[in-house]
UniProtKB/TrEMBL annotation:
Protein name per its UniProtKB record: tRNA-dihydrouridine(20/20a) synthase
Organism encoding this protein: Alteromonas gilva
Substrates-to-products reaction catalysed: 5,6-dihydrouridine(20a) in tRNA + NAD(+) = uridine(20a) in tRNA + NADH + H(+); 5,6-dihydrouridine(20a) in tRNA + NADP(+) = uridine(20a) in tRNA + NADPH + H(+); 5,6-dihydrouridine(20) in tRNA + NAD(+) = uridine(20) in tRNA + NADH + H(+); 5,6-dihydrouridine(20) in tRNA + NADP(+) = uridine(20) in tRNA + NADPH + H(+)
Function: Catalyzes the synthesis of 5,6-dihydrouridine (D), a modified base found in the D-loop of most tRNAs, via the reduction of the C5-C6 double bond in target uridines. Specifically modifies U20 and U20a in tRNAs.
Gene name for this UniProt entry: dusA
Domain DUS-like FMN-binding: 15-313
Length: 341
């Protein structure tokens, strides 16, 4: 494994793969906040890796521990991608069996594969035979009318028998008919008990839970019953929530960068980018929530949004945004002080 990382420990807290969001810029940013949280790429299809012209697997060495999530169902193609992922230096390769979008369903991967556990098992077996890094599966608790615990347990049993010992479970079923991907993130009710029951029946498996987790307190409660917690949208909208993760869950008392320090480092990161189509907004869009709940936080978001897009974005976007935010925060504090006085 890359960097000799203990992935079972790293999986204690992880950030979910989020399509169009957890790209390499986002992951570099999040790594500045937490050293230990396991990060996942956004899903990349096996077809894109094998037949596409772009570099879909590139990442920054600073991102470790980092896992790649693959979408696909052809064992040969998935194995080729797993081998390439290991060559790139990823710490884990994860199979997407949870995404409910039509684009994914039509490609015979994602949540629809829960109805075809043997196909997933065939991919796992082939991939594990070809790589040394762990091959894991992210799935739902059910799909459509296959919504009984017995259906879920059968899927896990078949895939585990092929050699997969790590499952990340989104504790909602997916409706492949009638609900959009966005609705599938909210409308089907959460059923954490089903994930707990799975861990209770299979103590030998490493089980992480995902879905609707919005605080580290909730994460701690889940960790009494499962091995790991994967957080998604809450981390994206409030990334500095990760600032307490290393000490709380990994016993690391190392100093945590302040929000302002992170802005300085990300400005330098922007200045180092040399891709022909790169724009500061490609980084800044991931940082809108950095000052959530802080004085001046709205000014920060507004400045980045107004000056980071368009034909002539501000090259010093983050530093100027920080200055505007700090000025607004100072004015707010002075106004509050006068009001109290």
């Amino acid at each position: 494994m890359a960097n000799n990382i203990d992935l079972n420990l790293a999986r204690t807290i992880s950030v979910a793969p989020m399509l169009d969001w957890t790209d390499r810029h986002c992951r570099y940013f999040l790594r500045l906040i937490s050293r230990h949280t396991l990060l996942y790429t956004e899903m990349v299809t096996s077809g894109a890796i094998i037949f596409g012209k772009g570099d879909y697997l590139g990442f920054n060495d600073e991102e470790h521990p980092v896992a790649v999530q693959l979408g696909g169902s052809n064992p040969d193609h998935m194995t080729q991608c797993a081998v390439k992922s290991q060559e790139y230096g990823y710490d884990e390769v994860n199979i997407n069996v949870g995404c409910p979008s039509d684009r994914v369903k039509n490609g015979s991967f994602g949540a629809c594969l829960m109805a075809q556990p043997q196909m997933v098992a065939d991919c796992v077996k082939s991939m594990q035979a070809a790589v040394d890094i762990p091959v894991t599966v992210k799935c739902r608790i059910g799909i459509d009318d296959m919504d009984e615990y017995a259906d879920f347990a059968r899927f896990i049993d078949v895939v585990a028998s092929a050699g997969c010992d790590t499952f990340i479970v989104h504790a909602r079923k997916a409706w492949l008919q009638g609900l959009s991907p966005k609705e599938n993130r909210d409308i089907p009710p959460l059923n954490y008990e089903r994930v707990y029951a799975l861990k209770n029946e299979h103590p030998e498996l490493n089980i992480s839970i995902n879905g609707g987790i919005t605080s580290l307190e909730q994460a701690g409660d889940h960790l009494q019953l499962v091995d790991g917690v994967m957080m998604g949208r809450e981390v994206y909208s409030n990334p500095y929530i990760l600032a307490d993760v290393d000490k709380r869950f990994y016993g690391d008392d190392s100093p945590v960068l302040s929000r302002a320090d992170i802005v300085h480092k990300m400005q330098m990161y922007i200045e180092q980018q040399d891709a022909p189509y790169f724009k500061p907004w490609h980084v800044a869009r991931h940082m809108l929530g950095l000052f959530q709940g802080q004085p001046g936080g709205r000014v920060w978001r507004r400045y980045l949004s107004q000056h980071g897009t368009g034909k002539q974005p501000d090259p010093d976007l983050l530093m100027n945004g920080l200055a505007a935010m700090q000025e607004a925060a100072t004015q707010a504090i002075e106004f509050q002080s006068r009001s109290v006085g």
